[in-house]
Amino acid sequence: MLKRFFYTLLLLTTLTACASPTPTAAPTPKATTTVEVTQPELDWWRTAVFYEIFVRSFYDTNADGIGDFNGITQKLDYLEDLGINAIWLMPIHPSPSYHGYDVLDYYAVNPEYGTMDDFKNLLNEARERDIHIIIDLVINHTSSQHPWFLEANSNPDSPYREYYVWAEEPGAGSWHETENGYYYGYFWEGMPDLNYNNPAVTGEMLKITDYWLNEIGIDGFRVDAVKHLIEVDGKLENTPATHAWLKDFYTAYKAQDPQAYTIGEVFGAGSSVVKIYTGSELDHIFNFEMSSGFVNSTNGGANSGIVSAIKFAQMDMPDFNFATFLTNHDQNRVMSVFNGNMDKAKMAAFLMLTSPGTPYIYYGEEIGMQGQKPDEDIRLPMQWNADEFAGFSTVEPWRAAQIDYTQVNVEAQTGDSASLLEHYRALIHLRKENSTLQTADIRLLDAGNSGIFVNLRVDANGTYLVLANLTEEPISEYAIDLNQAGLAESFVGVEMLFGEGQTQVPERSGDSFQPYQPFESLNPYAMYVIKFIP
Ligand SMILES: [Ca+2]
Ligand SMILES: [Ca+2]
């Protein structure tokens, strides 16, 4: 399509080489300790539980109907109690749009959300609570009102001209006409794509990452639309040039801050694609295959979706070093996918929070907020209580909250052990207190019934049985085959970590376990985590 796509990245390499990259990924073993089990220290994001926030909709503290940084600061106690220990803020920069994915100034914060001092205060208060904060980094494109683009568009001789992608004639894909030729903007005309074949653009982006990591002190970035960075010859996604650019980017930002974390959005990626980007290009990728597995197995009452997602992961990403989620800000809210079915919402949360992979919870998911597209309606004000405007603001919000807020809200669910909020809280704390649930190996088991999902999580810290009845009917026809798990030891006790009831130890005769039926009948949507004591 365009010859300039074949530029080499030599200049970029030179640029990043000056930054004396520090090797970072190598885990350092803990010094001798009195604890029996010693493990290599994991990067902080491997054991985190993230919470995605749309700032505009979280909490308004200055009565303008728009959520703000101070609002998040005021709600940090809520988030800490919930148990999350990392936050992803959707775009916080000045922008002409309500969502912020078209940036006007990468060095400033959106004045509607507060001042830079407000933002720094949020960072400090979060740090006090051991909560990490990452922000959206929108690098594929700027706003068409960004000063770079205004200059590039009005003056073809400007050095900013080559910050973007131009052609005399519209080619394949999304080209937009101006007085001085056509520019490429994959998503829409208001978002002109940056030209990463131009080392100057790469230099600008690294200045921006350095500013946020080292001047401001954030912990990393969620990198937007990462598969679209560099188009080559009409190929618009996942090009070798994009991968090459990301490899240099990885070296550069790790040199700026060895503890910095990036997670890339590769929309729709399953484990085989996640694998290509992870480790040498970005720290994490969202695994959409796992997400569909959690949601579809729950919705359909059959284990095939989650079982195949896990099998794909075992093949391509056996350490499950990726991020998981149920739905995000680009998808209908998961409670709407489940038509308001509380049992299903609880089941999906259980599947995600007992599986390996770093979970991301979308704000409001934990109380069962609903929302279906258009996009504005999946990003509505958080429902804090039954007061007017859902307790989000004292004035009419930027967009009205869902009408169910009088029943569905944080205040109503807090302390109610049957609520979705307390279910999330219990599962998050269970995960944090049992590192096996975070990062251990997962071994799928067969129970002879497609309505049952059962696996063992096994590492040096313990052996945990995760068991769920995905259906709305009781199941008594089942038996778990523990022999598939390759367990060497016998067990003398069980500890019920999640779920009601008492159960017995799996019996072993000789080399093999008897078929295991921890409960005669599994109630509809029953969920258990049982620790086996050797
Ligand atoms: Ca406000
Ligand atoms: Ca692009």
Overall description:
28% of the residues lie in helices and 15% in strands. By secondary structure, the chain is of the alpha/beta class. The chain folds into three domains: 3-140 and 194-436, Glycosidases (TIM Barrel), CATH 3.20.20; 145-188, Oligo-1,6-glucosidase, Domain 2 (Oligo-1,6-glucosidase, domain 2, Alpha-Beta Complex), CATH 3.90.400; 441-533, Golgi alpha-mannosidase II (Immunoglobulin-like, Sandwich), CATH 2.60.40.1180. The longest helix has 18 residues, at 199-216. It is globular and about 80 Å long. The protein binds calcium ion (2 copies). One calcium ion (CA) is lined by residues 140, 186, 193, 228-229, 231.
Topology:
Blueprint: H1 10-17, E1 50-53, H2 69-74, H3 76-82, E2 86-89, H4 116-128, E3 132-137, H5 147-154, E4 166-167, E5 175-178, E6 181-184, H6 199-216, E7 220-223, H7 240-256, E8 261-264, H8 271-277, E9 284-285, H9 288-300, H10 304-316, E10 323-325, H11 334-337, H12 342-353, E11 358-362, H13 410-413, H14 420-433, H15 435-439, E12 441-444, E13 452-459, E14 462-469, E15 493-498, E16 508-509, E17 512-513, E18 527-533
Parallel strand pairs: 1-2, 1-11, 2-3, 3-7, 7-8, 8-9, 10-11
Antiparallel strand pairs: 4-6, 5-6, 12-13, 13-14, 14-18, 15-18, 16-17
This protein binds calcium ion (2 copies).
One calcium ion (CA) binds at residues 140, 186, 193, 228-229, 231.
